[in-house]
Amino acid sequence: MKMSLKSAIALIAVAAPSFAFATTWELDSSHSSAQFGVKHMMVSTVRGAFSNVKGTINIDDKDITKSTIETTIDATTINTNEPKRDEHLKSPDFFDTAKFPTITFKSTKVAKAGASKLKVTGDLTMHGVTKSVVLDVDGPSAEAKDPWGNLRRGATATTKIKRSDFGLTWNKALETGGFAVGDEVTITLDLEATKKADAAAAPAAKDTK
Which pLDDT value is given to residue 27? Predict the structure, then answer.
């Protein structure tokens, strides 16, 4: 039995994968960062950041739950504004960046969580350990064109993890009770991405500011 052209087109449309409606965005490392905060001596919060955040976001505006994200963070760029502490954090006591130079996140599920908000579940790999975490995401923002003709979108994601879950267990007990470094770590990702140009399109100028 022959299928009519109209029926064939309808079947293809139904069977077409959702990514046909997705657009690909590349993270802009110069305008993206990963920050963290952890308790010190149980009395204050030490904050730091990683730079050189790279990755790809596929955004399906027709069905945002079919969107995906993959990011890679350069663990060697850790910066807490104290060189000696940063060297300690890079050592085998903590991140052991010589052995594990990157931190990665790969989404496994995206769910709506209100207007312009998402919950993104994914695999976080750090210090050679992979655990599922949930990011609370504000965004993605609407498209905006920069002065160089690039289309940009942004988002902010937050989560909390226990560093001990990733094998980061170094600590020192305090005489007054408790430990020098808290176990709970608050993470904030500030992400800005540019729309990937079509292969046939001429590349737009990059913003270096």
Answer: 97
